Amino acid sequence: MPAISGNEYIERINQLKTTIWYNGEPLTGEISEHAAFKGAIKSQAALYDLQHDPELIDVMTYTSPKTGNKIGISYQQPKTQDDLIKRSQMIQKWAKTNHGMLGRSPDYMNSILMALSASASLLEGKENCFPENLINFYELAREKDLSFTHTFINPQVNRSPFYLEETDEPIAAKIIDEIDDGLVIKGARLLATQGGMTDEILVISPGGINDPDYAFAFSIPSDTNGLKFICRESFALGDREFNHPLSSRFEEMDAIVVFDKVVVPWDRVFFYKNIQVANSFLSQSAFRPFALHQVINRQIVKLEFIASVTEEIVQSIDISGYGHVHEKMAEIIIAIETMKALLLQAETKAAVDEFGLMRPDLTSLQVASCTFPKIYPRLIEIIQLLGASGMVTIPTESDFESSIRKDLDQYLQSAKHPAKDRVELFRRAWDLTMSPFATRQTQYERFFFGNPSTIASDLYQNYTFN
Amino acid sequence: MPAISGNEYIERINQLKTTIWYNGEPLTGEISEHAAFKGAIKSQAALYDLQHDPELIDVMTYTSPKTGNKIGISYQQPKTQDDLIKRSQMIQKWAKTNHGMLGRSPDYMNSILMALSASASLLEGKENCFPENLINFYELAREKDLSFTHTFINPQVNRSPFYLEETDEPIAAKIIDEIDDGLVIKGARLLATQGGMTDEILVISPGGINDPDYAFAFSIPSDTNGLKFICRESFALGDREFNHPLSSRFEEMDAIVVFDKVVVPWDRVFFYKNIQVANSFLSQSAFRPFALHQVINRQIVKLEFIASVTEEIVQSIDISGYGHVHEKMAEIIIAIETMKALLLQAETKAAVDEFGLMRPDLTSLQVASCTFPKIYPRLIEIIQLLGASGMVTIPTESDFESSIRKDLDQYLQSAKHPAKDRVELFRRAWDLTMSPFATRQTQYERFFFGNPSTIASDLYQNYTFN
Amino acid sequence: MPAISGNEYIERINQLKTTIWYNGEPLTGEISEHAAFKGAIKSQAALYDLQHDPELIDVMTYTSPKTGNKIGISYQQPKTQDDLIKRSQMIQKWAKTNHGMLGRSPDYMNSILMALSASASLLEGKENCFPENLINFYELAREKDLSFTHTFINPQVNRSPFYLEETDEPIAAKIIDEIDDGLVIKGARLLATQGGMTDEILVISPGGINDPDYAFAFSIPSDTNGLKFICRESFALGDREFNHPLSSRFEEMDAIVVFDKVVVPWDRVFFYKNIQVANSFLSQSAFRPFALHQVINRQIVKLEFIASVTEEIVQSIDISGYGHVHEKMAEIIIAIETMKALLLQAETKAAVDEFGLMRPDLTSLQVASCTFPKIYPRLIEIIQLLGASGMVTIPTESDFESSIRKDLDQYLQSAKHPAKDRVELFRRAWDLTMSPFATRQTQYERFFFGNPSTIASDLYQNYTFN
Amino acid sequence: MPAISGNEYIERINQLKTTIWYNGEPLTGEISEHAAFKGAIKSQAALYDLQHDPELIDVMTYTSPKTGNKIGISYQQPKTQDDLIKRSQMIQKWAKTNHGMLGRSPDYMNSILMALSASASLLEGKENCFPENLINFYELAREKDLSFTHTFINPQVNRSPFYLEETDEPIAAKIIDEIDDGLVIKGARLLATQGGMTDEILVISPGGINDPDYAFAFSIPSDTNGLKFICRESFALGDREFNHPLSSRFEEMDAIVVFDKVVVPWDRVFFYKNIQVANSFLSQSAFRPFALHQVINRQIVKLEFIASVTEEIVQSIDISGYGHVHEKMAEIIIAIETMKALLLQAETKAAVDEFGLMRPDLTSLQVASCTFPKIYPRLIEIIQLLGASGMVTIPTESDFESSIRKDLDQYLQSAKHPAKDRVELFRRAWDLTMSPFATRQTQYERFFFGNPSTIASDLYQNYTFN
Questions:
Q1: Where, in this chain's numbering, is FAD bound (chains A, B, C, D) (predicted)?
Q2: Looking at the domain D148-281, which fold is it?
Q3: pLDDT tens-digit series, residues A342-355
């Protein structure tokens, strides 16, 4: 089966009987029509459709080594620098359709699954490890173009450094039994972005495991029995694109994932109850360089979008004559060029790793991943500072459709724009920086790579000084 | 007539036939029941009710020198340091009921009107100036406990330093005629916070006037013929207090104010077509020290609320053992104590001014007003940093009322709180830092005193070095 | 004996046979004539002389409750708010003579000794504690106007959190014996500012003591047998005031203090080998509020000096028309006014403590002590930024005395100054910000109150939220 | 004549009769033996010697297209990407010998002269322009391996934006006459780094010229009649390398340059009295990309030195276990990798320009040049923060040669170093961050590329948004 189309994606998701709770009610009906999901599903479908654009066929897909089908490049194991550059082009192509706002577009998880399965040899001959399950599952996912959510963290019950969970009923998801059909999991995990709108959920222990019951890695279909996704409030405030140009299209849901005695079939278990493997697999595998590579590519596209919105505001209200505006615009340019240069360095210094993958330079990517969470909130702030009162002078499209329009046309025009265009611009800026969608994006980017101190420590402790 | 009650306020506002446009439609029906206004109106009414609390009568009111009625202290001309301290107590008392979130609670405009009228002597004997109108109107407002919105800035059409408006039809509001009944005004002004939910609108030119047609100061009822308030989208996302504890109660609207050949009666004109007065009245009057004095008091209450929410998060998820948490909490404490110390200094160094007012020390207040716009966004960021994933793990009250509650109870409990209390806390933190209401608050505080460079220049240029 | 004069101070120091090593040689001859010490000694003598200025007698001294002599106010136990304000006035008066550059002017240690002896009741009835020694010694010091250096920290051998010293020979000073004559101390301590140029050295354990051999507090004369002061390189680069206007006068030495089997007489021991007392005495005593109170007063004077130098540069090269200059000057003003306001708050909220002292509010002082180490380096940087190339265009006084002067007069004049005055100004700015004296001042202020994280933790952990 | 050796450089400089004033006296005797110059001259000579190292001949030199001699690569006009990379290697090789501390090592001016002469066609056919003089002079300099100082800025008399010099006697250097022998120049310019220790001085107007008398570009020998170099105080505090490991070797002098009716021979004039050319030549020529390319290469070497010193301190006192140390070390790594990535991007995106030069990408270099002045002072601060009290505990080599050594050996040892090594390390850190040499380096790097706002404006105004 070749790379899927948008419709195939939507149909497959609609057919699943996934248990999703939203605002006190279980979802019924097609998820692709639900207000909290339809924007992101439609945008995601558009990504899949690009795989079938005749002009982009070689940008978006490659030939399956197994079936000869044209399949998505994010599933490809890159062997050459050229493969790596193609991978970047594909990622950026997708990201441009959503301005880098879909943090969990399918290429992210596809890249991770590719990297993990390429590293399956790390599981060879280890207790309770099933490298062949991992490889088989990767091939299945690749050929079927499966989509994924995942969860890496435990509930935020207690963040004390000395906390060990000791409750009768599990809170963090754990193995409570092993039966003929598979592992039995009970408890919860956070936060599944796109939870409910993907084929599968991939679950991996991130390290720091002391108790074998918390050591596992597997993937199961979203509608597995006992699996529940509990959504937060949606940040899609409406579906008119003029009013909410970003959130109406790119709001990905975040869900708490509850495992209510979920049975994970044995052929979907990659490892379990092996503390040593649970604590080392992610860091020893090709996971980090390839996950970071996808993310940095997406973030560059996002920065370019931020730059274009900001420059448009500067031109619109004609503030390009101020020194402080130059300094703020220079900050944005510095951000973009720094991220691009680090990506270039990562690819220029790429080398074939122990798994035969052309692996981008991890240090360069780590530096980028330490840089972005600091600059993103600052760039968001710059837009607010330059937009000033314009950021709250935001009537709606309905106002422009009413008799009050002639007042708006007169009083909200700008130096370069008629009123409606100008309000459209400032609403875009608002949805990028001040809407609940926007603030969630900021929070998301800030913590994407984990705790800032931890990623700084990682960088330092793995760095070789000249 | 003594200080009004909440009901009197609501009735008076409801009776006005103010023209308000919201989302493409003119408001009909009672404004106090309209989703976009009802929260703030109810919270404002609660302020007025405090004036009738028997235990607070001496905190909230003083005896009118004219009528002997008990009237609001914010209207009082302070003559002694004790008056000043009582003024602070009153302001903080009101602010505490809304955590300092009502930026335009009535004491703000009351203080301004008091200060302006006390400075009326500046208008004596000047062309087109009517100091007695100002004094009479202050007394009217004081005795009737009138509420106000106001506008100080022109539309953001073009912010170029070289821009001069040259259009056939006015954009910024200007005098287009003088008739027997008064001045005729056409054009628009930004941004009337609480626009539509007050008795009156006060309009004053802020300086920088080159053309006499833009030089004026007056006050007119909100329902004056030809006056229109065009609202932005509301940031009250719902009216359940659990879900949106702040925005459901404290969302003040911001409106564009359109003057469509509005006639300002002569007895409501304070001055007009006097460029020299227009450019100097605000800065030479007692306006700044008393406006700042009200604001700093409110902001201190807001900081204390921020501190309490943050400390509650720290305790809830038990992160008080981390050094970086201490440093962030110390930042908050430093912010509070610095603002309090500056207010104390302003009051300790207060002196009787040329108008006979006990005027707080302007430098201390200016320093506070340079400090707050920098620290407020940082404290908001600190809450986001400490709240981390908890800031987006926010199911709704409906979830807690459904059968999914038992999962929430188990998986969203925190070290110190059962799940519902913990979600209530994090929703409060979200509404304080990440909701559209929150981001508008940040934008509002950032620009409250005007452009940061301008307020820094003001401070420097008026400072005497030892 | 009343408060001493400058000459009395110099004579007393010269008569001591203190062992001081400088640049590979022991000092011989009078210390007051030694290039590394003479500037600071002369400046310190000037402080003592102020005590005899007839016009300042009531500002600088009070009447000894024991002898009726006029003695230094820094030794006074303040009982009233007025005492506290007088104390501040005295401290600022002294500090102004050296622009706050003498970090260890005698009032610092006098205040500490006053506070410790007032807290002597904490030692009552505890093992190996001698409160009467402390009180007697305080009275002796007060009546003789003794001067002090002190040391609070151990050598920086190993700063690992897990380090415990385990060497055959002591590194950090410790008790190695108790004999009839007193305690025997061996080892070293850091960093004695003014080490060698004071009558006495006060040594107190700062807390964190695990081994009773490190638990002690005492004072001994600087020339005690076995006591050695090993100096760093001097930062007084020359003695011409034009060339080095600050360092030629205010360079205080820092010395490593070596105890080579030093015998501390029993009557000079305040406590020893009592771990509980060693770890709690400083924090439970009145030490912190009074030490901080002296320091904040001095730092305010220093900030005012920084402000005056900066403003003089701005005027000299006529840059007061730039917005970025206003913003930087505003930063300086904010720094001064914030520190003053916090001091005012500390004094306004002062209350009588358990020892009968009128104790300034500790929180306000702690906030100031968290603030200053951040703003001081920034203000230093501002001077460098505004001074720009002028900071390195610094010929010497000899140049102005040579035939090249006419070129300097023409080419180094500024908008407001003839060349020599302008170079004098920029040399002052250089000596304040870029000389070795200047960088040591920055380092000193940065760490004055200890590690920034620690003082932030202290602030948070002792704060009561509303 | 091939690339010169160190001795040839020294002999040539010593033979010049350059007029240099230092501390009120004209230099007599050999400049290479003068305390204020000998360190830098020796270090510079070492650079020239590298050109004769048989193993480095191909790294340091190329074959003159004119004479077939081996001449310095910094004079080469790069035509290919390989040329560019060789240029970088040569620059870094030189810089490593002085840790990037020689800001004006010969490659800097050589690169500039190369770039200017390659751009000579811009002067073709323009009034008072002599492109052939520029080309001839470049070839002369290249073949003789001449060394240069230069001056780009006018005296800091008045920095007001509205200042125009109007004095009887010139202050800023200007043309006062044209005679048969050449232009006559009177006035001064700032700041000639290495002024007096080079063969020639290159003088170019930087733009912003309104008066043709200030429009000129030329080069003359340092000992031209009427030319005077007036030095600032030297920052070489001594010549023992242990005590002052950097300043004793790398202190470059800064001098005021006085033109006392200096005659510039016509064949050394590149252009004069052409305002349009004076204002555009530097920016239109290849000057900026090649000057920046040299600087960024040098700064990367400097960052690596900073990193190595900091890491050595961390290891020495064993503080690598602290989170805040990791964060600070990560900042350093981020700085290095960001600068390297930007250089890589500049070279990867290099393209042949209108003059046939392989020109590195200017935007990437501009971004680096906006970044470095911000990070350099911060990294210097990090060393001070980590070094803490160790930064002032710095006895001298003489102390280690005296009998006090045994105390130092015991009390100043560190976790990883014997005392003398540890003091050597901290003295190095002091000379890098806190000596007058260090603070001048910081000031120099901060302003190297000019005013930070200006370089930000340049970046923004020339950037093309996607």
A1: 156-159, 193
A2: Butyryl-CoA Dehydrogenase, subunit A; domain 2 (2.40.110)
A3: 999 999 999 999 99
